[in-house]
Write a structure and sequence with these properties.
single chain, alpha+beta, Diaminopimelate Epimerase, Chain A, domain 1, 20 helices, 23 strands, Transl_B-barrel_sf
Length: 685
């Protein structure tokens, strides 16, 4: 960087914060390398948002304090790999991807900074003098572009303007409340859901056996094809609350319940935990709700709020929420189908990067060499649906890890798995895929998995990918739904396709009516928003978005052409009326501020020495104002000052530049505004 070497200075002794910058960059690049190699990428929410802020803070220290050239951060990755590679093998394996992601995000941040500066400049130009910078604009810069707040304050301070802090803080509070209540916030991490190390050591020291959770796999297909889950009775071994093991919990107290056995699935392997309830034997009318189950050191912790005193030694009956469990099973089996289908369509080199399964949907991340096309999305869905239609048997078996690793084409064999491991194979018995010369695993889905699955693929019913996006360069994330949700998504997609066809047909008829074309343009805009936000097949969303984008371009061009025609007619009438006077102040009917501005532009183009101000009363009682000042009158005569003086008489607002300006007000001040326009102009000319 060309600066002084690191001296270890802190506080006031660190003049220019150079040593602080060294420490920040070193710390942040380590965090970035380990997180990215482990599958966490800079993003817009949760841990990904934290990582994005870490990266951007490091970039700013590099450029603003160390005065480093672009790319310094990524150039440090090999040093991190050398130091930490032995402890984190993923660093060595994924070093190239880490470099690419850091470089891409740095470039995007620099681009965002430039865009942010332009937004601030434009907003300041349009503001009235002596006003606060709009909180909404600052929030948009912060939330959407990742523009640092201190940088916003610094740039505004340079312009002698301050941020509307009260309004900005309100937006921050609103966002915090929304995240707290929304799905993005994730499940709360309760202190009762995971054992601390001392309690874990005490359990093991007391020879308390780990929870036998094998009953979670005890279910079968009963009559009429319905899943039947076997009952499970257990003994309370210990209760956990306030970070300590206890023998009892009183009514109303939240606690973790440790049992000798359970049929609850504890969250692991990307599958959400079961919910349900437990009852004491002999007291079936008193339900202890189980909110979640988590695995800690071999012990399953059931998160419970006691409705009355619960003690160690109590015998309980466990009841899993069967609908929620079945939905998770459906989506987990669908995730395996999706993994197989993605590899079949995109190639065997495609590797899973992560997944998460809940009762509502499944998320699947995978490597990709480029954007996934519409055709590839359709093919992936088709491959998965073919396996669903064949109603293949889902085979499972526990086998030694060494034996499992010999299976050709086995997915997910490189992670840290227990021994023995559980193999899940769709359509082919596990014994068949284990034979040394078998290639059966290459033709179906075979994975190591501890999750709960359907017994036959037909119960998935349907699978639809409703979202696909690139997390970072080379990694895509898809979200899919199954069963009734998938069917509903397809039906919605078909309905929206019909609406898009209808608009497209009407657009081809090329109406010569400006209001009709404006309505069509608005309809296309509204449809675009609906298509972007509605759960529907992603391949169909992409197709409709491409059509709507072209329609919006056509509509905008047609509206602009019709507005210009209308503006030219009005301008000709006004020129004839005012006979090339150096000043034109008048009222004229116009459907929008856009048309009124075009009339002003036409007048000034046809009569370059003329300054023009036009008012247009609207049916709503509003009056639109547009003006343009001849360049010959600058700098004495300012369009922005002219518009402000006129609109103030109508109790309205205006803004613009020295040459052009626009605004609006109330009709009750129209005559006074016309008088003010003339007086202001005469005082300047």
């Amino acid at each position: 960087c060309g600066g002084p070497g690191y001296r270890g200075l802190v506080g006031d002794a660190d003049v220019g914060r150079v040593d602080t910058a060294y420490r920040v960059v070193a710390d942040h690049v380590r965090a970035l390398c380990v997180c990215i190699a482990d599958g966490i990428y800079p993003g817009a929410s949760g841990a990904e948002l934290v990582l994005r802020r870490i990266l951007r803070r490091a970039v700013r220290f590099c450029s603003e304090v160390l005065h480093a050239p672009p790319g310094l951060l990524a150039s440090l990755v090999p040093a991190v790999v050398e130091v930490l590679g032995d402890a984190y093998p993923e660093l060595t394996k994924n070093a190239g991807q880490v470099v690419d992601i850091i470089n891409d995000n740095e470039a995007a941040f620099v681009s965002s900074l430039e865009r942010g500066r332009r937004v601030i400049e434009r907003t300041v130009q349009q503001m009235e003098p002596s006003t606060h910078f709009p909180a909404e604009v600052a929030w948009s810069l912060y939330g959407n572009l990742g523009f640092p707040l201190d940088l916003i304050d610094l740039m505004l301070e340079e312009k002698g303007i301050s941020l509307d802090s009260a309004a900005f803080n309100e937006l921050v509070l609103e966002d915090a409340k929304r995240k707290a209540g929304g799905p993005q916030a994730g499940e709360p991490e309760h202190a009762t859901a995971c054992l601390d190390v001392h309690s874990l050591a005490r359990l093991r020291g007391s020879a308390v056996a780990p929870t036998d959770d094998s009953p979670k796999y005890s279910y079968a297909l009963g009559r009429h094809g319905r899943y039947e889950f076997s009952p499970c009775q257990a003994t309370v071994l210990m209760l956990y609350r306030d970070q300590s093991l206890q023998k009892e919990a009183g009514a109303g107290q939240r606690c973790g319940v440790i049992l000798d056995r359970t049929n609850f699935y504890a969250e692991q392997g990307g599958q959400a935990s079961d919910r349900g309830y437990m009852t004491r034997l002999g007291q079936q009318d008193i339900l202890f709700p189980v909110e979640s189950a988590r695995l800690c050191g071999g012990y399953v912790i059931h998160e419970v709020t006691a409705v009355e005193t619960l003690r160690a030694g109590d015998r309980v009956q466990l009841f899993v929420d069967e609908a929620q469990r079945l939905a998770c099973m459906r989506n987990h089996t669908a995730a395996h189908l999706l993994n197989f289908a993605v590899r079949r369509v995109l190639g065997d080199g495609t590797e899973q990067r992560g997944s998460h399964v809940t009762a509502e949907r499944l998320r699947f991340d995978f490597d990709t060499k480029g954007p996934v096309t519409v055709e590839q999305l359709q093919q992936v869905e088709q491959v998965a649906q073919d396996v669903i239609r064949r109603n293949e048997v889902v085979h499972t078996a526990e086998v030694p890890l060494a034996l499992a690793r010999r299976v050709q084409g086995l997915r997910a064999a490189d992670g840290g798995y227990p021994d023995p491991v559980r193999i899940v194979s769709l359509g082919v018995p596990v014994e068949s895929v284990l034979t040394s010369d078998s290639e059966a695993a290459m033709q179906t889905s075979v994975e190591l998995c501890c999750g709960t699955h359907l017994l036959q693929t037909g119960a998935v019913e349907d699978l639809t990918i409703v979202s696909e996006r690139q997390l970072v360069k080379g990694v895509s994330r898809v979200i899919a739904v199954t069963g009734g949700q998938a069917k509903q998504a397809r039906e919605v997609g078909q309905c929206l396709a019909v609406e898009v066809d209808s608009v497209s047909l009407r657009m081809k008829q090329r109406s010569t009516s400006l209001p009709e074309m404006q309505n069509l343009s608005k309809e296309v805009g509204q449809l675009t928003k609906v298509v972007a936000s509605t759960a529907m097949p992603q391949w169909q969303r992409k197709e409709l978005q491409a059509i709507l984008k072209a329609l919006q371009r056509t509509a905008n061009t047609a509206v602009k052409k019709l507005e210009l025609q209308q503006a030219e007619e009005k301008a000709q009438g006004l020129l004839a009326k005012h006979c090339n006077q150096p000043l034109i102040i008048d009222t004229v009917p116009a459907d929008s501020l856009s048309i009124l501005m075009k009339v002003v532009n036409q007048l000034c183009d046809k009569s370059p020495g003329t300054s023009v101000l036009l008012l247009s009363p609207q049916p709503s009682g509003e009056v639109l104002c547009a003006c343009q000042v001849s360049k010959r009158c600058l700098p004495v005569f300012s369009a922005a000052d002219w518009a402000v003086a006129v609109c103030r008489r109508m109790e309205g607002k205006a803004g613009g530049s020295a040459v052009v300006a626009k605004g609006s007000g109330h009709a009750r001040g129209l005559q006074g505004a016309l008088t003010a326009a003339l007086e202001f102009a005469r005082s300047k000319l």
